[in-house]
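lol forgot to send this yesterday, sorry. struct tokens for the thing we talked abt
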């Protein structure tokens, strides 16, 4: 015994064909059996035709859309602005923004409708021969970022420059700046230039300490403020 499909409605093209067969003299039961729907579906279609003159479904009789046009635009704009969002995240954003809850399948349909599809990462294979991982021939020596810092000082002027001085063994304190840079480097260089010499530093804390101020005053070195 065959099982009859229990579709709740006919497509418009099916409805018009059924209408023609009814007007041709076939019974509702015969048509229902031939297209494998219940007779009640044929009966509703015929009553609608007698009432409206049309075998097609009335406007608005279709299944209600899960989203409004504005919500569709929201999904599309959000997907375009955030390319890394998947359907689940877009579903959550829509619910948070509008209060509308839809399935992830609905989200995908709305995006597919405007040509937006998920991007899948390309898979690749890393090919290594047996024993190559620890073979010295395949090892590259590297230095990790942040492994070392070199602090140096040099003075320049329109007429020349001082030698480069490497500051070793710890940070540059005000006392070290005075003892290792001002006295042995800046003072002789200022004397060589003469009264036109003006010191310009970078306003770091060691350069502006009180003991540096005192040292510059004693050496009669003018500093640009």
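and heres what i got for the seq, position by position
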């Amino acid at each position: 015994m065959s099982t009859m499909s229990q579709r709740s409605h006919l497509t418009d093209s099916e409805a018009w064909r059924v209408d023609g067969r009814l007007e041709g003299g076939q019974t509702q039961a015969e048509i229902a059996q031939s297209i494998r729907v219940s007779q009640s579906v044929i009966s509703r279609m015929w009553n609608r035709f007698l009432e409206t003159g049309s075998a097609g479904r009335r406007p608005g009789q279709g299944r209600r859309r899960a989203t409004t046009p504005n919500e569709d635009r929201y999904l599309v704009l959000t997907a375009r602005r955030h390319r890394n969002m998947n359907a689940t995240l877009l579903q959550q954003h829509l619910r948070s923004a509008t209060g509308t809850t839809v399935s992830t399948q609905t989200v995908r349909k709305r995006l597919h409708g405007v040509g937006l599809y998920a991007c899948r990462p390309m898979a690749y294979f890393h090919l290594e021969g047996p024993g190559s991982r620890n073979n010295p021939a395949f090892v590259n020596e590297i230095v990790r970022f942040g492994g070392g810092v070199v602090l140096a000082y040099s003075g320049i002027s329109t007429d020349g420059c001082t030698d480069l001085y490497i500051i070793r063994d710890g940070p540059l304190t005000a006392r070290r700046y005075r003892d290792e840079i001002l006295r042995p480097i800046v003072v002789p260089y200022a004397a060589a230039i003469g009264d036109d010499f003006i010191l310009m530093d970078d306003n770091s804390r060691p350069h502006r300490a009180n003991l540096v101020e005192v040292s510059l005053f004693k050496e009669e070195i003018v500093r640009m403020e």
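The two ends are 103 Å apart (CA to CA). anyway ping me if u want another try
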